């Protein structure tokens, strides 16, 4: 199966595909494919512009699952605030098809995780790396480029976007219960990854110390905001990939 330790959830036939990470079963259950983020479609939101390759992603998922018998399996929180079922989705058969892994491996989605839903991420991250190196799907479009941490002006132009950012941690420091990973000498202007208190506890439980990332080459993923320069809020360890240890 490729993703162990999950708990069986709803089973049914996929009746429709809303976008590249959301399907509706014949029972009416709406399933959000946890662990992935596909390019977004407007879906009725006024003024919302579709992300590049959003319809391609939706069609790719539709080809995989529409009309197929599937099973949702849970590895964390099971329902989101919108009432959608959260889980890994499998097309039933011999062998089973793990939908999230296929969508990411084919380049139609990125890894996107939450502190309360972290199952299977190691496998998904590995699949994403291969798809990105091969420039499959979304990775052929500049919109989804991995950004450079040493270009804060470029990052400032991506506020409100979900981004992957690579760079070397110049300084790892703790202040007021948070850990700051600074990627430049001017903390008010350069890119920073901020790890809050709850996230620090998750790092500790995983046997990881973010303060030891000083000097490491890393890839950060998350939503870009701007507080004393462009930054990403880190809520769980899987948002940071260590590419080269210090």
Layout of strands and helices, then pairs:
Elements: E1 7-19, E2 22-25, E3 30-33, E4 35-37, H1 54-65, E5 69-74, E6 85-91, E7 97-98, H2 99-105, E8 110-112, H3 121-133, E9 147-148, H4 152-156, E10 162-168, E11 171-175, E12 178-182, E13 192-195, H5 197-205, E14 217-226, E15 230-234, E16 240-244
Parallel strand pairs: 3-6, 9-10, 13-15
Antiparallel strand pairs: 1-2, 1-5, 2-3, 4-8, 5-6, 6-7, 10-14, 11-12, 12-13, 14-15, 14-16
Q: What features would you describe in this structure?
A:
The longest helix is centred in the middle third of the chain and has 13 residues, at 121-133. By secondary structure, this protein is α+β, with helices and mostly antiparallel strands. It has two domains: 7-140, OB fold (Dihydrolipoamide Acetyltransferase, E2P) (Beta Barrel); 146-244, Beta Barrel (OB fold (Dihydrolipoamide Acetyltransferase, E2P)), CATH 2.40.50. The strands form three sheets. Strands 9, 10, 11, 12, 13, 14, 15 and 16 form an eight-stranded mixed sheet that branches. Strands 1-2-3-6-5 form a five-stranded mixed beta barrel. Strands 4-8 form a two-stranded antiparallel ribbon. The protein is globular and about 55 Å long. Strand 11 and strand 12 form a beta hairpin. Helices cover 19% and strands 35% of the residues.
């Amino acid at each position: 199966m490729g993703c162990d330790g999950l708990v069986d959830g709803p089973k049914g036939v996929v009746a429709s595909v809303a976008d590249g990470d959301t399907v509706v079963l014949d029972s009416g259950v709406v399933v959000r494919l946890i662990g992935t983020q596909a390019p977004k479609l407007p879906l009725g939101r006024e003024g919302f512009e579709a992300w590049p390759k959003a319809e391609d992603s939706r069609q790719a998922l539709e080809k995989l699952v529409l009309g197929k018998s599937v099973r949702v399996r849970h590895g964390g929180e099971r329902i989101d605030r919108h009432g959608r079922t959260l889980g890994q989705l499998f097309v039933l058969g011999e062998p089973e098809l793990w939908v999230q892994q296929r969508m990411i491996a084919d380049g139609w989605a990125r890894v996107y995780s939450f502190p309360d839903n972290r199952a299977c991420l190691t496998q998904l991250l590995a699949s994403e790396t291969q798809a990105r190196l091969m420039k499959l799907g979304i990775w052929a479009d500049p919109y989804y480029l991995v950004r450079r941490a040493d270009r804060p002006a470029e990052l400032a132009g991506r506020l409100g976007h979900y981004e992957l950012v690579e760079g070397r941690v110049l300084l790892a420091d703790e202040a007021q219960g948070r850990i700051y990973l600074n990627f430049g000498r001017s903390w008010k202007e350069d890119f920073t990854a901020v790890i809050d208190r709850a996230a620090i506890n998750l790092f500790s439980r995983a046997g990881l110390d973010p303060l030891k990332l000083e000097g490491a080459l890393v890839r950060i993923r998350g939503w870009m905001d701007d507080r004393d320069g462009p930054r990403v809020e880190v809520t769980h360890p899987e948002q940071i990939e260590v590419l080269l240890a210090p």
